[in-house]
């Protein structure tokens, strides 16, 4: 187990190293940082002085080491466009994105898994066919279009829900939450639904496929032959065995939810990191882009690690250790 | 995960008795075709009304795109025919509509139907071009990886794995941002094409590479390839003449599905404002423009281009699904 | 004569497919007396496993019972609703499947699976059920059962797992066990142990067994009576000694010829030429006619019925004719 975790950790570090290199290359070679920071009237000497001061004349590996060191402490430089610390901007906007992402993930999980189980158990039921057809259309409809349609119906035509922003927020120390006010919750409904819908269809299809697979196995047949109740067979035995792949995909999906939030945040003008990142791309604001890349990569790697730990909890086969393996042979 | 399908290893060395007799020495060249025949592709096509509909819809879109200047009632890029007085008109059947503009007009007086036809043209052009790029990149790297092996293989696959762990749209956005930074240009039409094609193409090579690598490694260990090596045929010849034809089936399937992904990616990038400019609108740009007018009730500017995009993507997706099942290379 | 525990009357199992209806089990009748071991032998696809699945009510859809009756202690069980049949499964009819490696759920310890089964069918408390589970494990010969009860299936070897499966099948003392190829997936060295264990336990508990296998050796060793199946029908059924020593049906004769007998030195093993026909292409007349060496005209036109010959019953025109001639 320990060896397994260590190996995973090393892999994670390798991935982060790759990503940091990419981010650094972007930061260093795309555009000229000094050019972005000074006005037109700045003289060449002043520019050169600034370069030296910023360490841009140091050897490249020194610069990279400094970049990594800064990034590790959450320091990503100053935004070209806003002339503010990128770390401050991220700190302000992270809660909005995380709240949106986590609520959508929970939504897709708690609706997607039961739908998947249902369609797996009642393969030929009419409701299953409705679910499957709807999911195919859901996969083909682009996220932003779903968001626009929702806004049109519920904000423009019906006027039930706000079309943009996150409503009133409450400050909880450094965390600015929209979950404690009515307007905040109302503002969350459409973005969370839009963001979660795609993952929902994926999870539903995955759970269905896994259920169909597991229901064909011998141990399910044997569980039935032992006269266990339908409930025990379907949920105790079958569903538990579908959990391993579901955990993997759901874990990975949480990562892509944070990334897909870029689109949703744009549609609903949700003041999160995704919107900030998009504006950075539009304005070629490299420090924010680099910071976002590293943050997202960090989320992915962390989620991957957590997923691996969860395997260990769910599947006893991974818990084999040398001392207990005497039953083999 | 993409598995190495057992069925695609049928090639010149196919030894399964009675599966398909290929008496002519040109069997290799017709590998794909015989596989099409084998798997009853035409039969399954004629039996599936949904697939036929999807094929017709896709074909209509492609034809409209190619012959856009002939098909479209107006040329939305011809300034001489555009009149700002015509702007924001509802569809023809609604009050205030005009029979010249069946689906209404946008904020600049361009007919929605015409902009959709020209927009599909741009969307499909970028879609096809980026799939071609992704295919060339992916197949090339996959062949290299599978045939050379060793450090090259490890490196390529490692990069593929890292890239695969990020959503395609995020990769495309990043490449798009970097390219726009490097090229130091404002959104000039000509370059917007290239930026989009590059960013979408580079984001999508991994699927191709992984599949092709798997098949290549299976083929490489076959006796006929080893025999060819022994008698001194150059590696590049072996790859081109023997291995490449055998991996074309799955590549075709992936390419079809990737076309839907690419069209969708292009639309998303354009919608996000980092794709095609409003002067040369793709379907995504049209939706972005229309989105601003949604609140004033001018829904036709977004609903019609949006429906066109959704129908196109759905049709291509359905075609891809069917093709995958029909060729049955156990992809996914 | 004792009342039979299980009676199968004219059972017919069909699979509707796109290419028409396949008949996997055709007009099969047999009975099992309390405590008796009935061996069912035949090649794969002969319908023997299908018969077992039909008895326990677990035919895989689209398979279905198209005709006939199954009676357990005189009560019809083939048409029971799912919930009633569920109560019979495990409590009155247990089952053992071919592959012990895949019969146990990998995510639960063997104790959890035993306790769950015991508690489903009895009113025992958790502690009682756990004690019973330990007893069962020791009864099937698992060493240190108090400790091993919390182990997971992957921590047992194949033979040990099949012992656990037997414990699971026996845990609430069913009257009948359907054992479908219980040793096929095991090492040859372990097969005999498992068969001996199964035989001993069933004798001790008074449990009847329907032992489905393609291995005539296993039958000869463990069964009281044997039914030989071919292409979904019973070719011959009778006391095991009778069938083994004086086989009547040409197919049984062929099967016996394929068992090596160590005493008789280097005598060659005979082999039946050809293969059993697929369900889609069963010939008219006797299904065995393409491989039979003694066919007469009638074999190609009419299906033979099961007729009593001595202590056995045989479906073969040779024996039917002998009887009618006599």
Tell me what the structure shows.
The complex is a heterotrimer of chains A (329), B (332) and C (326). Chain A has twelve helices and two strands. Chain A has helices at 2-29, 33-37, 44-54, 60-72, 86-121, 126-140, 143-157, 182-215, 218-225, 230-267, 273-282, 286-314, and strands at residues 170-172, 175-177. In chain A, a hairpin with a 2-residue loop joins β1 (170-172) and β2. The longest helix of chain A has 38 residues, at 230-267. Chain A is globular and about 85 Å long. Mean pLDDT of chain A is 80; it is low at 321-329. By secondary structure, chain B is mainly α. Chain B has a single domain (4-14, 33-331), classed as MetI-like (MetI-like fold, Orthogonal Bundle). The longest helix of chain B has 37 residues, at 112-148. The radius of gyration of chain B is 23 Å and the shape is elongated. Chain C has helices spanning 48-56, 82-88, 100-103, 110-121, 126-139, 145-148, 158-170, 188-205, 216-222, 240-245, 250-257, 317-325; strands at 6-17, 20-32, 37-41, 64-72, 75-76, 93-96, 176-180, 208-213, 225-230, 233-239, 307-309, 312-314. In chain C, the strands form two sheets. Chain C has an eight-stranded mixed sheet with strand order 6-7-8-3-9-10-12-11, with helices on both faces. In chain C, strands 2-1-4-5 form a four-stranded antiparallel sheet. At the A-B interface, α1, α6, α7, α10 and α11 of A face α7, α11 and α13 of B.
Present the secondary structure layout.
The complex is a heterotrimer of chains A (329), B (332) and C (326).
Chain A: H1 2-29, H2 33-37, H3 44-54, H4 60-72, H5 86-121, H6 126-140, H7 143-157, E1 170-172, E2 175-177, H8 182-215, H9 218-225, H10 230-267, H11 273-282, H12 286-314
Antiparallel strand pairs in A: 1-2
Helix pairs in contact in A: 1-12, 5-6, 5-8, 5-10, 6-8, 7-8, 8-10, 10-11, 10-12, 11-12
Chain B: H1 31-38, H2 41-46, H3 49-66, H4 68-71, H5 112-148, H6 150-164, H7 168-183, H8 189-203, H9 205-220, H10 223-230, H11 235-271, H12 283-293, H13 300-327
Helix pairs in contact in B: 3-5, 3-13, 5-6, 5-8, 5-9, 5-11, 5-12, 5-13, 6-9, 7-8, 9-11, 11-12, 11-13, 12-13
Chain C: E1 6-17, E2 20-32, E3 37-41, H1 48-56, E4 64-72, E5 75-76, H2 82-88, E6 93-96, H3 100-103, H4 110-121, H5 126-139, H6 145-148, H7 158-170, E7 176-180, H8 188-205, E8 208-213, H9 216-222, E9 225-230, E10 233-239, H10 240-245, H11 250-257, E11 307-309, E12 312-314, H12 317-325
Parallel strand pairs in C: 3-8, 3-9, 6-7, 7-8
Antiparallel strand pairs in C: 1-2, 1-4, 4-5, 9-10, 10-12, 11-12
Helix pairs in contact in C: 4-5, 5-7, 7-8
